[in-house]
Design a protein that fits this description.
two-stranded antiparallel sheet, homodimer, DNA-binding, about 65% helix, Arc Repressor Mutant, subunit A, mainly alpha, about 160 residues
Chain lengths: ~160, ~160
DNA sequence: TTTTTATTGTTCCATTTGGAACAACATGCG
DNA sequence: CGCATGTTGTTCCAAATGGAACAATAAAAA
């Protein structure tokens, strides 16, 4: 079945002045919003909170600042998320002995368990949204996205 | 110059359970947040407002509902944006003679002028973020994004 | 026709959001 | 050392956000 669509509202994909930016944000919204809504409904987590979990399930120890950099979100948003996740027992925090300003964050096993459930929501939605790409296309997209993302990570110091 | 980066916080691009979703949202953030901040600072526009302008600069006439669908944003957000842009003179609104519920929105010439300035912010930032892709890669990315975006547009009716 | 169901745009309200200022600590420079 | 500058995490506050309910209109069903 081909993609014949919504009247033709989607001609804008071709005429917009910033076509890649538009499609990338469109896809991001298409993936994240529905997954995000489900996660909020099922677990009561706000976006910054599961982002925090995701970061900490991939690095043993992080500071709040590092999480902010990885996720491109403001520090105060992360700070709030840290507090809520500490209260819920999904995180551990210990002052850094070498730097009195920062604290070392770790995920707890219950936090990791929660993350595993949540990441299912996102990867399922991801596969739905990218479902019409064949294996080659999917791989090629992944490669290009990674190259661009690494470059983007280095852009703003 | 190669992309050697932020300590190695970016290993997460490889280990995350939903790699494409993560990179797509990461790139979306990398493009949109800085551009968005500048647009807000320079023109006082909120995101929903320039999205509205962008939609109306690509379609002669739209209803608020159609804008919401194109942009994947809630109706009330668009409704508010419509009011502010009407007040500023960037939009015209006329009741639809065939359907008393909806109103036909059009961009004014001053709105179009504003959009032209704004779209520069976004396309510049887009080119910065995608700056390390060569012409072939860029074209390939564009093609894949478009295919996926069209599919996504048909997913949730 | 009348009744039910769906759609559009809006308002209400609680929550989320992010900029700005802040205190605590660290680092660089005289 | 003493002073300026930078960084981390936090709080404050105003603004943006989105779900839910609503009135008005339209379409579908009975």
């Amino acid at each position: 079945m081909t993609d014949v669509n919504t009247p033709d509202l989607m001609q804008i994909f071709d005429t917009i002045e910033y076509p890649e930016a538009y499609r990338i944000t469109y896809l991001a919204n298409a993936i994240v919003f529905p997954a995000y809504a489900d996660i909020k409904k099922d677990f009561g987590l706000v976006r910054a909170e599961y982002i925090l979990l995701a970061c900490l399930s991939h690095f043993d120890v992080l500071t709040a600042q590092e999480v902010a950099r990885i996720s491109r979100r403001p520090r105060n948003t992360i700070s709030r998320a840290v507090h809520r996740m500490l209260d819920e027992g999904y995180l551990d925090r210990a002052p850094d002995p070498h730097d009195g300003r920062q604290a070392r964050l770790r995920i707890t096993s219950s936090g990791r368990k929660l993350h595993d459930k949540i990441s299912g929501y996102l990867s399922r939605r991801q596969d739905e949204v990218l479902g019409n790409l064949n294996a080659d296309e999917r791989q090629s997209l992944t490669h290009l996205l990674k190259k661009a993302a690494l470059h983007a990570a280095n852009l703003d110091n």
